[in-house]
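To assess whether the prediction recovers the assembly geometry, we first specified each molecular entity separately, as shown.
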Amino acid sequence: GAGVSQTPSNKVTEKGKYVELRCDPISGHTALYWYRQSLGQGPEFLIYFQGTGAADDSGLPNDRFFAVRPEGSVSTLKIQRTERGDSAVYLCASSLSGIHAETQYFGPGTRLLVL
Amino acid sequence: KNQVEQSPQSLIILEGKNCTLQCNYTVSPFSNLRWYKQDTGRGPVSLTIMTFSENTKSNGRYTATLDADTKQSSLHITASQLSDSASYICVVRTTSGTYKYIFGTGTRLKVLA
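The predicted structure of the complete assembly is given in tokenized form:
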């Protein structure tokens, strides 16, 4: 079956603009994770969904970042008033149920560049 | 502060040789430790997952070890291939009431013919 997909693959925007990044998890996976990866760094946790609810959003850097998963499948990461420091690769991952020792499957990421 | 440190930062080896990557962590409380392989421009792919009670786990030519007492892990790659060239990321999951994964910065491995 299909893996985790993310759209767009690349996004270039201007400082101050609003962007939405989309993640389609593997079908049937209830757990969904968003990460941010800066150049040369490991991914940084942003938010974790269990079904439709955000079980842990403690990684969101500030209130400009928001994520939703209204039907427990597709998720959208929303960034308001983008800043140059938001430029990074945004990775999405999903796992079957979110239990601790479960494999996470990552998407290819969305490369965001804020000019 | 929860941290995951990896060494070396980068490594170049010849095809067919073995290598070992190191991961030290200060994450507490500990749930599990994972090793991922990330090709350039791609998302990470899981290699191994180890819980507290597991000391070693293999996945083909990849063997991971875990010493929960010293909070150290290693990833050993046997008979390296050109396709092993990638970043290898160590990730520790904590059980501190949340679902946080703490990622290391990775080791960039280059295998030369």
